[in-house]
Design brief:
- This protein is an alpha/beta fold.
- The chain has four domains: about 100 residues, Conserved hypothetical protein from pyrococcus furiosus pfu- 392566-001, ParB domain (Alpha-Beta Complex), CATH 3.90.1530; about 40 residues, no CATH class; about 290 residues, Rossmann fold (3-Layer(aba) Sandwich); about 35 residues, no CATH class.
- Helix content is about 30%, strand content about 15%.
- A ten-stranded mixed sheet has the order 15-11-12-8-7-16-17-6-5-18, sandwiched between helices. It has a four-stranded mixed sheet with strand order 1-4-2-3.
- Helix 1 packs across helix 2, helix 4 crosses helix 5 and helix 8 packs parallel to helix 9.
- The longest helix has 16 residues.
- Bound molecules: S-adenosylmethionine.
- S-adenosylmethionine (SAM) binds next to strand 17.
């Protein structure tokens, strides 16, 4: 079938020779006319008007009005001579209505707008979205990036330069093999309720808001430290779906802490910013207030400096490069001195050191004493985050192993237990293995439990992974459940 090829019939006509259709049902607001004008200025007159033999418009009323407002005297038109009066009326409606029936692929739209914004060549307002719409779409992109879904490669040289001089133990930019991406199982081996024993660690596929699940995981053990990164607000696309009520989730998970944490245990929770309606949201406030009512003080508040931010305009904000760690407790525990002191061994002069209120320098003010070998960490944790090329391509919110490793070393001693109620891909378990602290972890999603096991066994192929109460090894359980292609431990 061949259709008339109208592009060959484009002609230039004087604006004054054209007239709008009196019964045009399509309305063009002043704002939309501004958008059409901006588009014409940005891209030229790329879409000819459709007119009939008499110069009456069939399609393009907004474009004609915008052209006239811009002082354009001649516009490209296609004269449609083959349509009946009824067909012209129908096309006037169809031309607008059919276009309205298309929808957007939100992810691609977001990427396209973010790319255009970054390139900076075209004014985004020329595209036809309002300023508020663009803000909302790009804010969604920003949240995705903050959560680690869309991180770009960064200039490693910049990173090294910018991170130089940070906290010694925490700023190594080299790729951490523990953050590499394991080969995930093709089908889920783990089933809800499975409690896996990974070396001396335990990982339960269950719900951390369920007191029975936590009691099963912990038994009589109590952890010296809870470190976790729960879902941030409501936004993430986990395999288990989004979080409906964040306060309820957190209250649920923190409602039975006495079954998991020792009386002098510390609780550190990593949370990132969420922006909504063009504002950052203090979504943690209600939960933190509630924590105080059950005896958990908001003891410390730390910043996780994730290294240099990502390229982009960020909607008028500065490039995001930090998250928070909230520290709760019921009794303080002195942080371990794990940071080497630059001036270790240097002896303060008798006149130097700290002075008492009256100006005197006494022994307790360290005068005449050598600087210690190590000190406690800063309340800014300088640990470079992932760059979207390792394990975080498998789980949307993985933190680097160095983050739990650093905090475990700071707030526990070897052999102390660590509790992780939102285990994700098992990063805290890997940190526990590295530091000699057994981890007790819960993860809701079977697929992430399998992922955590895949990560663990790829790093520690010699350690047994068995099902509690059953004794079979992971591969045997997989085979019994009909899953033959599991991650290779090699
Ligand atoms: C922010 S991610 C943790 C990522 C983890 N830090 C890592 O490095 O892989 C939060 C995890 O909590 C899990 N989750 C959500 N609700 C849960 C619940 N009620 N009990 C246990 N896990 C839950 C999600 O499936 C998700 O894997």
């Amino acid at each position: 079938m061949t259709l008339p090829w109208m592009a060959a019939k484009i002609v230039l006509r004087l604006v004054t020779e054209l007239r709008p259709h009196a019964g045009n049902a399509r309305l063009h607001s002043a704002d939309q006319l501004e958008q059409i004008k901006a588009s014409m200025l940005a891209f030229g007159f790329t879409n000819p008007l459709l007119v009939d033999e008499a110069g009456e418009l069939i399609a393009g009323h907004g474009r004609l009005e915008a052209a006239a407002a811009l002082g354009i005297t001649k516009v490209p038109v296609i004269v449609l001579r083959h349509l009946s009066a009824g067909q012209k009326d129908a096309l006037r409606l169809a031309d607008n209505r059919i276009a309205e029936n298309a929808t957007w692929d939100q992810a691609l739209l977001r990427d396209a707008l973010a790319g255009l914004q970054e390139a900076g060549e075209v004014d985004l307002l020329a595209i036809g979205f309002s300023r508020d719409e663009i803000s909302a779409i790009l804010a969604a992109a920003e949240e995705a990036v903050i959560d680690g879904d869309a991180l770009d490669e960064q200039d490693d040289a910049d990173q090294v330069a910018e991170n130089g001089g940070g906290a010694a133990a925490a700023t190594d930019d080299a790729e951490d093999p523990a953050d590499a991406e394991p080969e995930p199982p093709r089908a889920a081996v783990t089933r809800p309720g499975d409690l896996w024993l990974l070396g001396e660690h335990r990982l339960l596929c269950g719900d951390s808001t369920d007191a029975t699940a936590v009691a099963r995981l912990m038994g009589d053990d109590r952890a010296a430290l809870l470190f976790t990164s729960p879902p941030y607000g409501n936004q993430r696309d986990y395999t288990t779906g989004g979080i409906g009520d964040w306060d309820a989730l957190m209250r649920g998970a923190c409602g039975h802490l006495e079954a998991a944490i020792a009386a002098d245990g510390q609780m550190l929770v990593n949370l990132g910013l969420i922006h909504r309606d063009a504002e950052w949201q203090p979504y943690w406030s209600g939960w933190i207030d509630w924590m105080r009512t059950i005896g958990w003080r908001r003891f410390g508040w730390y910043v996780w400096d994730q290294g240099p931010g990502l390229p982009g305009d960020w909607n008028g904000r500065l490039a995001p490069s930090f998250e928070f760690v909230f520290h709760f407790n019921r009794a303080a525990r002195q942080a371990n001195k794990i940071i080497p002191c630059r001036w270790a061994g240097h002896v303060n002069s008798e006149k130097g050191g700290l002075r008492a209120k009256d100006g005197t320098v006494g022994e307790w003010t360290h005068a005449g004493q050598g600087v210690q070998e190590t000190r406690i960490p800063d309340n800014v944790l300088r640990i470079t985050r992932h760059k979207a090329r390792g394990i975080e391509t498998e789980h949307p919110a993985v933190f680097p192993v160095k983050l739990p490793e650093f905090l475990i070393q700071t707030f526990t001693d070897e052999g102390n237990l660590v509790f992780e109620p939102f285990a994700g891909s098992g990063t805290t378990i890997l940190a526990g293995q590295r530091t000699g602290r057994p981890v007790r972890a819960i993860e809701l999603a079977s697929a992430y439990v399998d992922l955590a096991i895949a990560r663990f066994r790829s790093l520690h192929p010699d350690l047994p992974i068995t099902l509690d109460g059953d004794g079979r090894e992971y591969d045997a359980v997989a085979a019994a459940r009909g899953v033959t292609e599991v991650a290779d431990a090699a």
